[in-house]
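STRUCTURE:
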């Protein structure tokens, strides 16, 4: 997800650095496609043949009506740039059934996954910068609000606060697991939230502006740091950097890991990349 512009400057990266494993995970570019406009997140279609790509097309908090969703094939071809239009700053995307949900500043937008038509806009009361979005095992659509310390839940078209906590300051990426929700924050934390008790466990710290997150083997996590660093976090919270593209001015936002392929939007330079992931031993 993107950095909320009015947040305080990022915390310094902590000293939590692991000894280099004998075979760390590697990322190799498979393809890139341009022609996008500040892409932020991706979701895979039901048939696995293409990706929905959110495009903010400007500032992340601007209610300008020019945000849109594109469709890109999983082999890197632009299929339809303006699949869904009329959004403001769409960021996180998730597919549930035949509906694509987008986190759009202060509302969760339900979009027909086949036609791109907007079905419903559900306001999230008090939200300031909705960022990532995910579907919990019980079917709730959860959305993080980087502008507050909240995660919202959408049920039956109504959004309400699911959890508010100081540890959720600058909350960003969401990754549902069977019994818990994995969360990144732009305060550099990787968290786990129990669905039932809502108890929060700190898994790691010192991750800078934490953004996207995916699970690897051996209880490890892949975490992107805005604007252009990728980390691997071990079960003990120790982490190492496996990619740094800051010098290229290539941003790493939210991402999607599917069958050893990492689909990564780049807010700058408005491209989408696919990386082949090769995992090392945990």
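SEQUENCE:
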């Amino acid at each position: 997800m993107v950095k909320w512009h009015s947040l305080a400057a990022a915390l310094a990266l902590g000293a939590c650095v692991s000894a280099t494993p004998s075979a760390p995970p590697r990322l190799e570019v498979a393809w890139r496609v341009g022609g996008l406009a500040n892409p932020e997140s991706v979701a895979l279609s039901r048939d696995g043949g293409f990706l929905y790509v959110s495009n903010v097309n400007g500032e992340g908090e601007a209610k300008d009506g020019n945000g849109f969703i594109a469709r890109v094939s999983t082999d890197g071809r632009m299929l339809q740039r303006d699949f869904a239009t009329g959004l403001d700053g769409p960021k996180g995307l998730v597919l549930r059934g035949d509906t694509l949900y987008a986190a759009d500043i202060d509302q969760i937008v339900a979009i027909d996954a086949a036609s791109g038509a907007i079905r419903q806009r559900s306001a999230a009361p008090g939200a300031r910068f909705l960022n990532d979005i995910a579907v919990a095992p019980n079917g709730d659509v959860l959305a993080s609000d980087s502008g507050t310390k909240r995660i919202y839940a959408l049920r039956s078209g109504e959004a309400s606060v699911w959890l508010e906590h100081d540890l959720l300051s600058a909350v960003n990426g969401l990754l549902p697991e069977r019994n818990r929700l994995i969360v990144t924050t732009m305060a550099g934390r990787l968290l786990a939230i129990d669905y039932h008790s809502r108890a929060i466990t700190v898994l790691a710290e010192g991750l800078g502006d934490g953004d996207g997150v995916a699970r690897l083997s051996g209880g490890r996590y892949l975490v992107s740091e805005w604007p252009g660093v990728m980390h691997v976090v071990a079960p003990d919270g120790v982490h190492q950097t496996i990619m740094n593209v800051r010098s290229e001015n290539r941003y790493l936002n939210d991402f999607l890991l599917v069958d050893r392929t990492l689909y990564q939007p780049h807010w700058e330079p408005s491209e989408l990349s696919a990386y082949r992931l090769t995992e090392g031993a945990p």
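REMARK: The first strand starts at residue 26 and ends at 33.
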